[in-house]
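go over this chain:
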Amino acid sequence: MAKKKTVYICQECGYESIRWMGKCTNCNNWNTFTEEMKQPKVQKGIGASSMQKTSKPMKITQIESEREPRITTSMQEFNRALGGGIVLGSLVLIGGDPGIGKSTLLLQTSAQIADKKLTVLYVSGEESIQQTKLRADRLGIDADKLYVLSETNLHQIMHQIEEVKPDFVVIDSIQTMFKEEVTSAPGSVTQVRECTMELMKVAKSNAIPIFIVGHVTKEGAIAGPRMLEHMVDVVLYFEGERHHTYRILRSVKNRFGSTNEMGIFEMKELGLQEVMNPSEVFLEERSRGASGSTVVASMEGTRPVLVEIQALISPSSYGNPRRMATGVDSNRVPLLMAVLEKRVGLMLQNQDAYIKVAGGVKLDEPAIDLAIAVSIASSFRDLPTNPEDIFIGEVGLTGEIRRVSRIEQRIREAAKLGFKRVICSENNLDGWTPPKDIQVVGVKTVHDALKLGLAD
């Protein structure tokens, strides 16, 4: 009888090794290798030959363009994050921290789809059907077309999909599912990969949209092999601080729409409610006349969002000043402080710097550089900025202000919320006409922007 072969697989990145190693040479994590049975290889010719007989290449000019049919929910923010709705036959992966509200969001979405007389199958591998019912009662869900199943065996789930014939399926979560043919434990790299592959086949062959929930690691990335994100059509991250009521559903991959789209929700007693105008929410508690506070118009996908950037500069009592940032790239803060010190003459080398984006939003585009620099200078000089000003621009190492994309949409959003002046790069002023009720001022350097932005 042939001896069963084993292989050691890293549970963080999926790297395979014939022997156990303390440190993974691929992702440099320690003690992540587990022993699993090696899966038998498929014989050559099986599957490949049949694929060659049925699949033939076509000229791209002969392929008819078709618009993907979508299922829309009652939450416009959820539809926005998906690019306009749920595409039939799509496989969507949603990840987020424990307790952030992933199950609540998907249960609400399932109920809204069931209210449209579509059959929904909600599969929970972590909770019993009684626990799911308690959550549904708390959310006020009473949909007759919503079926709940508590199961972790993938074959049983496939059987129920054939029996119920749902129009929408939720798997919560993929780390709890297992295939009997795979000898490794549920949640392992092999089990997650194989179960996702089976669900992808069901979604594509039956035109059923399937949402799968994925656990996240301590770094915030979705647990399991990186290939998991490549297999699915859409990857959504549900972000937010547990102590804040606002949640952000961010799209980082979408084969049917724009990436980096964002939907904003507020967690209330009756579940998640969408926030239609996030700019007003993020600016409603802004302190007028306080130093170190600026407003920037940041693009989140196709939507401009106005947020407040706060800075606190104080003398350091240690040899190495602290540089802390929340909501922005921490590496940008010392870079911008170096530009202010070299090009503007601000002595910041002995100052502690604390930067924060109010509201718990994370900004990662270069257009926020100017707002960060002005807020730092405002706090250092203890001079407030004009509360009706907005700062938009990328800051170069020589102190110049560089152009940013989609300046028209940013300025229209600022004018809609009552701001009177926008300070941006003068290179952004060509080729378009700004709104009449807002003044757009172009500057070349950070020094020019500080002259305009800081009131003496």
